[in-house]
Amino acid sequence: MSALLTRDFGVNGMGIKAGSGGYAGGSGRKGRAKRERFEPRVPQKKPLKPTEKNPFPSDPEFRFGVFKIEEVKDDYLVCKGFDPRAKFPFTEFTPASFAKVEIAKPPLLQRTPWDGETVTIDGIEYTYEYTDANNRTKSWTDDDDEDQEEDEEINIPYFDDDILVAVEVRKNQVVDGFKVNDTKVRNSNDALLSWVDINASGRCWVGPSSGCDAQNAIHDYTIIGSPTGGVISIQLTVLGEQSSLTFNVDDSASDVRTELLTHNKIGDLDVFVSGGPFPDSTIRVEFIKELSNTPVSLPTASWSGASGGEGVAVICAMAQLGSE
Predict the structure, then answer these.
(1) Which end of the chain has the least Cβ crowding within 10 Å, N or C?
(2) Which residue, among 36, 18, 205, has the nearest Cα to 109 in the 3D structure?
(3) What's the whole-model pTM score?
């Protein structure tokens, strides 16, 4: 009761008494006082307003989401939520995957801000001309006044059905979105999207003199849902050639390596396979030797041949991009 404030209204409308200890009583025999009880008002600290020096509010709200790409645009991606816990996560509609969401590409991977533009980097002016969202030509004048140009590409382009992680800034009064063009859903040529791909796969522009450091492509293959029998399959493309590979749901790393070697473009020393066995552990595949520093796109997977378990699915993830 000590935390309550009370007001005592006399029957003759006289005076207001406020106390901190229980109820205040009335006086005399003319009648009982009317009693009102209420919680004390706690002063609320006003959040820090964003300024040019501090563009973020003191209590921004962020949320992350996992999405599957439905359509690739120049500056953004049309996606649906991806629910790996669904029984058929790549095809089943769940509350998480019903609505379409526009997700901005990271600014350096967008096309519109750079196409035909000249930017200065380390004192050198570079001009970019795009043939599509994933390929461009960079031109500049070197220190000897010689004109130079080279072709660049995104080491692993965005593609339909790829899985990505995005972040949304839900409360931000200054940095309130990422500008993209040609967003027909919003019917605007200069829309601001609150969702942006965090680029967990490490996509970047690569060319003879710029882009990512050389590194091997590394894939992680995971079976979820604890199947008890049957097989899974993947469609793996290496150096432009696609091959269908089949694995038992209880294969070891050695078994997976043996099946990978049936691909015409994979030599005996070109893959290092670790982890496993399926289905309880992830198996990692690193492309080495003749395939070192080479982009290898993630395969598409099918688990219709697996039996038993619940909510069975195969997740192929890019642990590291291959780049020259």
Answers:
(1) N
(2) 205
(3) 0.50
Q: 72: which 2 tokens? A: 């690739």
Q: Are 69 and 163 in the same domain?
A: yes
Residue 45 within any structural domain of the chain: no
Mean pLDDT (the chain, rounded): 76
The per-residue pLDDT for range 167-191, each reduced to its tens digit, is 876 654 334 445 555 444 444 445 5
Nearest by Cα to 207 from 120, 270, 134: 134
Contact status, residue 213 vs residue 323, Cβ threshold 8 Å: yes
DSSP per-residue codes, 60-84: --EEEEEEEEEEE-SSEEEEEE--T
User: CA-CA distance, 166 to 149, in Å (whole number)?
Assistant: 34
> Taking Cα atoms as reference points, which of 239, 223, 234, 218 lies closest to residue 285?
218
Count of structural domains within the chain: 3
Closest CA to 296 of 238, 241, 229: 238
Q: Any alpha helices (H) in the chain, and if so which ranges?
A: 253-260
How many C-beta neighbours within 10 Å does residue 72 have? 17
Residue-wise pLDDT for 56-72, tens only, equals: 555 556 778 888 898 99
Count of other CB atoms within 10 angstroms of residue 90: 19
In whole angstroms, what is the distance from residue 163 CA to residue 80 CA?
10
Which 8-state DSSP code applies to residue 93? -
Both 201 and 228 in one domain: the answer is no
Six-digit token string for 140: 């500049």
| Whether residues 162 and 15 fall in one domain | no
Are 206 and 223 in the same domain? no
Q: Which domain holds residue 61?
A: 56-211
Three-class SS state of 103: strand
- Look-up: residue for tokens 């997740």? 315
E strands, 40-157, where?
62-72, 76-81, 100-104, 118-121, 124-132, 135-141, 147-154
- 15 vs 9: CA distance, rounded Å: 7
Q: Are residues 222 and 185 in the same domain?
A: no
At residue 101, the 3 state secondary structure works out as strand
